Amino acid sequence: MCKDESFGVPRLGYADRVENITSTGLYHKYKEILRDATVHLYAVGNFTSDQFEALALRAFSPLAEMRFTAVETAVKAPTVSPVEKPIATVVEQMDVQQGVLCVGLRSTVLYQDDMYPALLVYNGILGGFPHSKLFVNVREKASLAYYASSRMYGLKGILLIQSGIQIENYEQAKAIILEQIRAMETEITEEERSFTIQGLINQYKLSDDQPLTDAMMDVYARLGGKKRSVDALIEAVQAVTIQDVQEVARTVKVDTIYFLRDEEGISHA
């Protein structure tokens, strides 16, 4: 789905490029990172900033010469331009007994946008919770999937639907999943909205108890170009209306349909 974009690069890199790495080149890169890379340190505890700075300097001094500065990093927020293109279908075969059907979606709404809270609610109604459209219609009513859910990458405006299905149910499951995506534009109930908002609030309150949350929110602010807090997100999702979600739904387009199946054949795919 993102093969021609930086987002599509595996975090561990590519195996075929390892052969080109030399000990000299690797050492030079190591020194370059120590010299030039920006380091973000996050600390939570009962201490002052001066105490933490002294501790960090001692810890890192053997590696590099460090200077601590309070910097507000200005990041230009990314933009997304809507591009109409055909839906890509990818079928892979392996020695498996169960099929995996995934649908990749793109939205023009990103983390820094005012409509981002509505995108959060959109994902929750579509596939983020047990009351979501995918879970109810694909798994419970049609009994076509072992699981059916969606998750989103807000910095990229990407949503991924994943489901585990019987291989022979591919066409039927795909049709119902696409039907739920279309339904998001016109068929959202107040119950779906309120249940989703409450579910999101519960998630945020739980995450606010974790020390890592503040660090992640800061990383998102630097990458996305907008500062948000847990409290602000809770307030924002509470204000999302059905009309807001439907407006976001009209920005969401199917990009790629992926099907992992057995090695017997792909005649029906």
Automatic annotation (TrEMBL):
Molecular-function annotations in GO: metal ion binding
Domain Peptidase M16 C-terminal: 21-193
One Pfam family this sequence matches: Peptidase_M16_C
Record field: transmembrane: none
Domain of life: Bacteria
SUPFAM superfamilies per UniProt: LuxS/MPP-like metallohydrolase (SSF63411)
Protein's name in the database: Peptidase M16 C-terminal domain-containing protein
Organism: Ferroacidibacillus organovorans
Organism taxonomic ancestry: Bacteria, Bacillati, Bacillota, Bacilli, Bacillales
